[in-house]
Amino acid sequence: MTSLSAEPLVLVDDLQTHFPIRRGLLRRQVGAVRAVDGVSFSIPRGRTLGLVGESGCGKTTVGRSILRLVEPTDGRIVIGGHDVRELGGAALRALRRRMQIVFQDPYGSLNPRMTVRRILEEGLIVHRMGDAADRLRRIQQALDRTGMPAEALERYPHEFSGGQRQRIAIARALVLEPEFVVLDEPISALDVSIQAQVLNLLVDLRDRLGLTYLFVSHDLSAVEYVADEVAVMYLGRIVEQAAAFDLRRVALHPYTIALFSAVPSVDVHRRRRRIVLPGDVPSPARPPSGCRFHPRCPLAEAACRTVDPPATRVGGHVVHCHVAARELERSGGDAAAAAERMAAALATVPAAAIG
Ligand code: SF4
Questions:
Q1: What are the start-end ranges of the H helices in the chain?
Q2: Cβ–ligand 1 contact at 297 (below 6 Å)
Q3: What is the pLDDT of residues 281-322, one digit of tens each?
């Protein structure tokens, strides 16, 4: 599913990351958790793709697979023209400097026994970047860019607030001068009062330094604010992708519509009744046949249980849903009109599925 037009820095094609399930004395493999099961997208240089979905949908595993922090099972990952899965040894180390990650938890991701200076210097030493004086200059610059005072250098992580720790974690990523950064739920562990500050910092850094982001989050409002494009994941797959500024208006997939129904809108004309989906997300070890969303979908039809919905495209907007495809055809490709009809159909389903 590739809808971004400029030349991509990041290209992911049919990514699969399965984790084996082993049982018995001999630890025989008896199955696999299909955490990521056929994900494709691209991100142009200097842009942000938001990856959104409920916890357990595979979005975090996508980010970690791209950086090879977990080993993908299959698929292609190309960053800056390099096939990440083909690289090893020194070539992979060199590429790793150019792609960094900021984790969700600023408490757990910083070593409490190291000063901020040592935390930021570690990567520079590993990648043999500069002498001691040059490393100090880079560290000071990274702290300054993230709004941290110079005095932070010789202090320890526990001496800072959650927001400041996340700034240090961002500085640790920036000090290596990366091109691509995976932001893995970077604000969800922070107080609501400082989430906006960190989001603004991330946007400012991207624009000033020309960074490319994969922004992984369960928070649709944050993703709408930061991202250029949004990909919605469900049970290991992308079910819908569109421009961030427009997705709320043209959401076609019942899952996307349900996610948006839980997000307050300032536009009174777009406020909808909250849709509470029945049941839980099925196990990725035994994904449902046909459309994976069918056991929870209020609009499911017979075909949904057996036929995997293919991609339907309208410009850069892509959706995997039989009913949405039919509505798009009826509306002559007018996504906004089809989206209105999908939302109206969901609004008429029995109260058991609607909160
Ligand atoms: Fe629902 Fe069917 Fe569309 Fe899947 S394909 S989202 S089950 S209507």
A1: 59-66, 89-98, 116-126, 132-145, 162-174, 192-209, 220-226, 244-250, 254-261, 322-330, 335-347
A2: yes
A3: 899 999 999 999 999 999 999 999 999 999 999 999 999 999
